[in-house]
Amino acid sequence: MSRPSDGRDEFVVADEVVAPRLGPLEWLRWAWRQLTSMRTALLLLLALAIAAVPGSLLPQESADPNGVIQWRAANPAFVGVVDALQGFTVYTSVWFSAIYLLLFVSLIGCVVPRLRHHLKAVRAAPPRTPSRFARLPVSSAATVQGSTAADAVDAAERLLKRRRYRTKRYGDSVSAERGYLRETGNLLFHGALVGVLLTVFVGGGFTWTGQVVVPTGTSFANLESQYDTITKGRFFSDDSLQKYSLKLDRLDVTYEKQLGPAFGQPLDYTAHVTTRTDGGAPVERTIKVNSPLDIGGTSVYLLGNGYAADLTVRNADGSVAWTGVQPFQPQDPRTMTSLGVVKAFKTTDPEKQIGLVGFLYPTAAERTDGTYASIFPSAGSQSLVSFFAYEGVIDDGSGRPQNVYELDTKALGLKQVAGRTNPVQMGIGQTATLPDGLGSVTLNGITRYAAFDVHHDPSQGLVALFVGLSVLGLITSLLVPRRRLWVKVTEQQDGDLLVEYAGLARGDDPGLERAVADLQRDHRDSLEPGLARAVSTSVHPRGGGTGAA
Amino acid sequence: MVNPLDQLSELLLVSAIVVYAIAFIAFAFDLARRSAEAQAVVGSGAGRDDLRAEQGGGVAVLVEAPPAAPPAAKGRRSSARAGLALMIIALVLHAGAVVLRGVAAERVPWANMYEFSMTGTLVMVLVFLGVLTRIDLRFLGAVITGFVVLLLGIATVGFHVEVSPLQPALQSYWLVLHVLVAILGTGFFTLAAALSAVQLLQARRERRSQDVRPTRLKLLATVPEADRLENLAYRITVVGFILWTFTLIAGAIWADHAWGRYWGWDTKEVWTFIIWVVYAGYLHARATLGWRGTGSAWLNLIGYGSVLFNFGVVNVFFKGLHTYSGLPTS
Ligand code: HEM
Predict the structure, then answer these.
(1) How many Å apart are CA A109 and CA A33, to the nearest integer?
(2) Cα–Cα distance measured from residue A256 to residue A338, given in angstroms and rounded to the nearest whole number
(3) CB A176 within 8 A of CB A506
(4) What is the number of helices (H) and of strands (E) in chain B?
């Protein structure tokens, strides 16, 4: 018993093919044999491992788009090369795809003939008993008195059957084999891998993902137009979305309050929501970071949170230039200092629209230089909002879409009217006057908002099924021993019986010797307890005998 | 703010390191003796047979306890036995340190690199001792204790962080399972890698002894043959591979719960995948003509290299969602 060898070699013969003059068909056949050989599978696996490395060194568009932007800015000299090699989209690149597609073609080309071979083997009887047991990796012999050859073989066959071996009599010998499950498991494993890949491929087309920011007290409906961003698979259509709405009633966040290295670290986020499906009654549910909400064929994940400021911007005459709940983007989860933008268009003078850019400090503390910082992430009466203010034309009525989180003061040619020395600052319930007679800003309150990711992936269940099958296959294939055992009985001149036992592993099998020894012991006991005596036991510790080893 | 339980845990850990270091010396002493012994039997022709008897003859050892050592080997075994005893004492201290850390943090002690190293090395030792009850691998005692001392040293000096609560994304049963299985898998991979490394040395020695060139590493004469080392490495890797498959799957499920996608080619996911693929390559290599033996042993070491890289380099230097080292980021 040594390395796995027999029963496999028909899949490695391609290694030895020498090519004399070949026609096109033979070339094709030869190429196919090469592709589906074990050695190619191995090389493709190693190639796949190596090809996956660059994607962990370079930022990827899919996982880290900001990283890509930074990398581009920091390494302008290499951007051309990296782009040409699809270095920012490694896992969907031509070369990465080529490797795994080849691997899977090789896999299918390898599994199909093995499946055929295995189906035949499962139906076939165990092979003929070898003539010389001594050449097998494990063999032993004993003499038995007072029994007939037929009885002895019967007894051996019974024992082997009880051990769930498949048996076949050849004269005064019995040949037995077990562990067909090993190859079954192997084929199941490889086949299920193909299933995983296909499901991911096809299923990806039906997948869509939307992101939406929902301030406390407001709701969103599962409609394409309601999402801030939405990524759609190839087969997305308007009726891919089931109707439902979700209202954020409350977002509870707890922070570490003990002084120490973790001070201010968030400990828990819980979103309390009310959902309503088409025609259904409202239902109260909760969403936590590790437990999404399943509704209307989607999963709703709580992936982000922040503060939104409820603000009213008034013109000098008291009319409202803008009012609403504006989400701010957190800059640091430990302090929740957040950055936000307000764009007020309904100004009395359309040339003097108001742009506000500033920070929200949940727990504001004044620094020595007069600026503020947040020292804890909780908001309340201790909170402060501080804006720089700009005037000019922000929205020219052309309907160009604008990013609500950004104000490009340079591109719009805005004039700064309040800055570091005279910021527009206010606490909750306070009103601050805007310079240049522009009016005032009132902070009505601060609420939390939740950022939800909504996913629809109908293939997930099937992927999980194939993964489960492949694990099942893997475990049986690696742990079920496959082996053959033989018992041969020879009548000797003095009337005694010489009983020989032998075993051969097919694949890795640490229990082979014990199996032979146990069989011999039980066989002796079943024939003539106490009478049998061992003649010789020989053990070949090294793998001799298995052809290719 | 210093947690007194954590302080006690650190004290236990440092004591464990010291005892492991002494165990290492004892095992190294055993290796030196083996070396001397192998020298003494060279030429007498008795070396190999003696050894066979001691190892209980090939694969049978896997299922049966080895028979008692012949008298000649008794003396040499005393330092190995001392090493083993010390290793068990160190293990108890080490386990105490891990448990106290968990109590201090009020959660499982594997949420940052310091804790991962601490628990990971504990599992390595447990796996080694567990396998030792069935197979005589004492010749690896020095390798394992040496490696554990090194890793624990790096962990206490380089990775130590105060106990802190888990970020919400890490509060999941799947994290507990995912990391636990990864640690277990790493324990098996470590042992398998050590065996493959010795296998490579042994294979070289066997090749040399055929052309009658003496080797300097005499102690290898007292270690099992390359073939047997390969079989052992294979069996242990198989267990590691199954565990790693679960790591991959549990990680995907956790990622699905936490981030809303089961696979996103995050750096840490990429490396978990690379490791899995390299070990799949190793399993194939054993069944591929021309790759058996030395080739597959190298693959096993490359796989283990990726495991170490994933832990030591990816966690600390790479950017990704799994930034759980707990170390300040630059
Ligand atoms: C996606 C690519 C592949 C992966 C991840 C993979 C993985 C594995 C794993 C983990 C094993 C060991 C467990 C078992 O025996 O079931 C294995 C065994 C095996 N694979 Fe693959 N495999 C792949 C492709 C292939 C291809 C293309 C071939 C054929 C050329 C192949 C042929 C085999 C054979 C014959 C075995 C049994 C080896 C033995 O007896 O030890 N595999 N594979």
Answers:
(1) 9
(2) 19
(3) no
(4) 10, 0
From the number of C-beta atoms within 10 Å of its C-beta (0-12, 13-18, 19+), residue A444 rates as middle
Is A49–B319 a contact, with Cβ atoms under 8 angstroms apart? Answer: no
How far apart are the CA of A92 and the nearest CA of chain B, in angstroms?
11
> How many angstroms separate the CA atoms of A211 and A192, rounded?
33
Q: CATH number of A133-178+483-541: 3.30.70.20, 3.30.310.80, 3.30.1330.40, 3.40.190.10? A: 3.30.310.80
Instruction: Report phi then psi at A482, rounded to 5.
Output: -115, 125
Strand ranges for A62-150 from DSSP E: 138-144
> Which pair of structure tokens corresponds to residue B92?
């108890």
Cβ–ligand 1 distance for A189 under 6 Å, the answer yes
Is pTM beyond 0.80? Reply is yes
Of B199, B193, B166, B161, whose CA–CA distance to B294 is shortest?
B199
Distance (Å, whole) CA B173 – CA A543: 45
Cross-chain residue pair B319–A258, CB shorter than 8 Å: no
Pick from B1, B260, B320: which is nearest to A299 by CB? Answer: B260
Q: What is the DSSP letter of A222?
A: S
Q: State whether the beta carbon of A38 lies less than 6 angstroms from ligand 1.
A: yes
Compute, in degrees rounded to 10, the torsion defined by CA atoms A220, A223, A229, A233. Answer: 140
Place of tokens 């929501």: A273
What's the gap in Å between the CA of A509 and the closest CA on chain B?
Answer: 9
Interface of A with B in 278-297 (CB under 8 A): 288-292
Exposure letters A43-57 (e unless 16+ CB within 10 A, then b): bbbbbbbebbebbbe
Cα-to-centroid distance, A90 and ligand 1 (Å): 25
Rounded to whole angstroms, the Cα distance separating A179 from A181 reads 5
What backbone torsions phi and psi does residue A389 show, to the nearest 5 degrees? -120, 145
Q: Helix/strand/coil (H, E, C) string of A438-483?
A: CEEEEEEEEEEEEEEEEEECCCHHHHHHHHHHHHHHHHHHHHCCCE
The DSSP annotation for B186-251 comes to HHHHHHHHHHHHHHHHHHHHHHHHHTTPPPS-GGGGGS--HHHHHHHHHHHHHHHHHHHHHHHHHH
Contact A306, A449 (CB under 8 A): yes
Q: Where are the domains of chain A?
A: 26-119, 133-178+483-541, 208-456
Report the DSSP beta bridge partners of residue A127: none
Cα(B27)–Cα(B146) distance, integer angstroms: 10
- Whether residues A4 and B286 touch (CB distance < 8 A) is answered with yes
pLDDT, tens digit only, all 549 positions of chain A: 344 443 343 333 344 445 566 788 888 888 888 888 888 999 999 999 999 999 989 999 888 888 888 889 999 999 999 999 999 999 999 999 999 999 999 999 989 999 999 999 889 999 899 988 888 889 999 888 878 888 899 999 999 999 999 999 998 999 999 999 999 999 999 999 999 999 998 988 888 989 999 999 998 999 888 898 888 888 888 778 888 999 999 999 888 887 777 787 888 889 999 999 887 889 999 998 888 999 988 999 998 889 999 999 999 888 899 999 999 988 887 788 999 999 988 888 888 889 999 899 999 888 888 788 888 888 888 999 999 999 888 887 776 767 777 888 888 888 888 888 888 999 999 999 988 888 999 999 999 999 999 999 889 899 999 999 999 999 999 999 899 999 999 988 888 889 999 999 887 888 898 999 999 999 988 886 554 444 444 444 433 333 322
What pairing do the DSSP bridges indicate for beta strands A166-170 and A173-178?
antiparallel
**Residue B241 CA: which ligand 1 atom is closest?**
10
Q: How far apart are CA A519 and CA A531, in angstroms?
A: 16
In angstroms, rounded to a whole number, what is the distance separating the alpha carbons of residues A349 and A311? 20
